[in-house]
Amino acid sequence: MSQLRSSILGAVVVSFACGSKDPSQGETGSTSSGSTGAPTSTDPSATTTSPGTTSIDETGPSTTTEAVDTSTSGDSTGDTPIVLDGSCPLETRVGGFTLLAEADYTAFSGTVADGVVPVTVLELVGEGAGCTLLRRNNPFCDPLCTPGTTCDFDGTCIPYPANHDVGVVEVSGLLQAVSIDPTPPNFNYFDTQLPHPAWDPSSPIVLTAAGGDYEPFELHGLGVTMIEPTADMLTLAADEPLPVEWTAGDGEARVFVSLNVDQHGLTPVTLFCEVPDTGSLEVPADLITSFLEFGISGYPVAHYYRQTSDSVEIEPGCVEFLVRTHQQTALSVEGHTPCDSPDDCPKGQTCDLVLQTCM
After folding, report:
1. Range of the domain at 40
2. Measuring CA to CA, which of 71, 137, 170, 306 is 20 to 30 A from 123?
3. CA 225/CA 56 separation, integer angstroms
4. CB neighbours (10 Å) of residue 148?
5. Where residue 82 falls among pLDDT bands split at 50, 70, 90?
6. Is the separation of the CB atoms in 268 and 116 below 8 Å?
7. pLDDT the model gives residue 264
8. DSSP label at 350?
9. Total count of domains within the chain
10. What single DSSP character describes residue 206?
11. pLDDT mean over 101-125
């Protein structure tokens, strides 16, 4: 089965095969210009998982399996085939860059740190048919860790991974080239001033980092078309499989889907699927049942991504590059009614405003 890698932080959402994809937020000195309309921060990103652990991102794990030979596209000069190495394994992912196209804007973001944040490594608690259940665990240290450090899973405090300068990052192959300096002290790379859309479908895209605290590196991607779910809502029910459909693509991309039914972290488990871009997948009934048993709260949501992913090893670990498009739809759970006020609940039930759940 394909490996799932992720870049989800906070709301257990992950990225794929070789790692994770989660746009970083922050401001950068960018020389690109173009149509705006983007917010000042990006949402979503994905991961794949092999048995064991994985890592999180706010958009869900991004997932790719083996390296993809895109020789039909070639590189930006048309001379050399492009081989995409997939995302980073969560346990070695120290950073990444994301080109993310939403319905109304395209944004670029990224960071590279000197280590893996322990809490972003997720535990695999179920899998099947290209889908995984990933749980966020919070390490515990006694005594508590001091500022500037964080708790590792062995119960010891370690220095909190710090972001680093990897030099000017340039992205070519777009309708308008991007060149970004990191913004100290957090060394975020970020640009919301991109044209929308920022690329032509299937166009080869090349990211180069000039090098700073670490050696220079290069990563590749392909322009992907907007993902289009075919339904406005998915409905989950215990002991029933879940069909998920979208308009199939005709490129080298893969599709990543993340489902979150526990918006308030009662039991932080998210369901991630990463599959070929055929237009459909089916989550097995037993995996849906296990997923719902972990807990439900708030307003469930489904995220869809079409993406390519590439990765490279540098001194501190694995760095990845995601080119992705994103849409989200509502998600309902049989027997669960989310609420913002008592008026949202059926007769005889009240609204737990903290959990946004009718009880």
Report:
1. 5-358
2. 306
3. 25
4. 9
5. confident
6. no
7. 77
8. -
9. 1
10. E
11. 96
Number of C-beta neighbours around residue 96 at 10 A? 32
State the Cα torsion 259-275-15-288 to the nearest 10°. Answer: 30
pTM (two decimals)? 0.80
Q: What pLDDT score does 202 carry?
A: 92
Nearest to 15 by CA among 326, 341, 289: 326
- What are 133's two structure tokens? 């259940």
Amino acid (one-letter) located at 259: L
Buried b / exposed e along 315-338 (16+ C-beta atoms within 10 A): ebbbbbbbbbbbbbbebbbeebeb
Separation of alpha carbons 100 and 43, rounded Å: 9
pLDDT band at 191 (very low <50, low <70, confident <90, very high): very high
Sign of the C-alpha dihedral computed for residues 290, 291, 294 and 298 taken in this order: negative
Q: Sign of the C-alpha dihedral, residues 123, 310, 231, 345? A: positive
Where residue 89 falls among pLDDT bands split at 50, 70, 90? very high
pLDDT band of residue 287 (cuts 50, 70, 90) is very high
Q: DSSP letter for 102, please.
A: -
Helices and strands (H and E) in the chain: how many: 1, 26
- Token code pair at residue 279: 């237009």
Nearest alpha-carbon partner for 87 in 109, 113, 57 = 57
**Structure tokens that stand for 294 in this block:** 């972990």
What DSSP character marks residue 338?
B
Per-residue tokens: 84: 């995409």
Instruction: Give the whole-angstrom CA distance, residue 302 versus residue 49.
Output: 19
- Of 39, 33, 29, 23, nearest to 175 (Cα)? 33
